[in-house]
């Protein structure tokens, strides 16, 4: 059994720069290390948070193939996830396309494009980017949260695999 402090230390990074998720879930889940249970509890916590807190969570995510990646400023999880999709190997043209899409997306929605990119190709990501730019704000807000939940589940599964 894990105490609250240990739980937060272990799971505080599951949701990007948002340890509040682990802090709120800790009293409910400190006795569980079941990925399914943790993923559900954490997703419920986010889904029941206020829209301002949800927006802050979305905004905590880095741009894909963005300046933070180039500068080496991503979290270890984000670095690994983006590298698994080859985003660390973009050509100059691909990188410029990512920058243009990142900018257009943020200008339209006010938050970064979020996608669970692990095991996706650069072309698949760019296609999703273009398609999702056509969405309205509410649909894209919900889509971003769904993608964040996928990222969290993948991170929990990776932790379990490394336990």
CATH topology of the largest domain: UraD-like
Query: Taking all residues together, what is the mean pLDDT?
Result: 93
* Main β-sheet description: none
Number of helices: 9
- How far apart the termini lie comes to 15 Å
Backbone shape: globular
**Rg (C-alpha, Å):** 16 Å
Q: Give the SSE string.
A: HHHHHHHHH
Beta-strand percent range: under 5%
Structural class given helices, strands, pairing? mainly alpha
- Kindly report the name of the CATH homologous superfamily of the largest domain: Oxo-4-hydroxy-4-carboxy-5-ureidoimidazoline decarboxylase
Instruction: Write down how many β-strands occur, each being a DSSP E stretch of 2 or more residues.
Output: 0
């Amino acid at each position: 059994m894990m105490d609250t402090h240990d739980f937060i230390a272990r799971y505080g990074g599951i949701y990007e720069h948002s340890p509040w998720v682990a802090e709120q879930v800790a009293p409910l889940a400190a006795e569980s290390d079941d990925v399914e249970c943790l993923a559900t509890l954490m997703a419920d916590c986010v889904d029941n948070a206020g829209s301002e807190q949800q927006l802050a969570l979305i905004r905590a995510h880095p741009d894909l193939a963005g300046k933070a990646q180039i500068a080496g400023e991503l979290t270890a999880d984000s670095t690994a996830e983006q590298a698994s999709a080859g985003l660390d190997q973009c050509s100059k043209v691909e990188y410029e396309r990512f920058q243009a899409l990142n900018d257009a997306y943020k200008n339209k929605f006010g938050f970064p494009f979020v996608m669970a990119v692990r095991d996706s190709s650069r072309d698949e990501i760019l296609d999703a980017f273009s398609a999702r730019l056509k969405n309205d704000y509410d649909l894209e807000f919900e889509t971003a949260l769904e993608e964040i939940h996928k990222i969290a589940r993948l991170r929990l599964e990776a932790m379990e695999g490394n336990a």
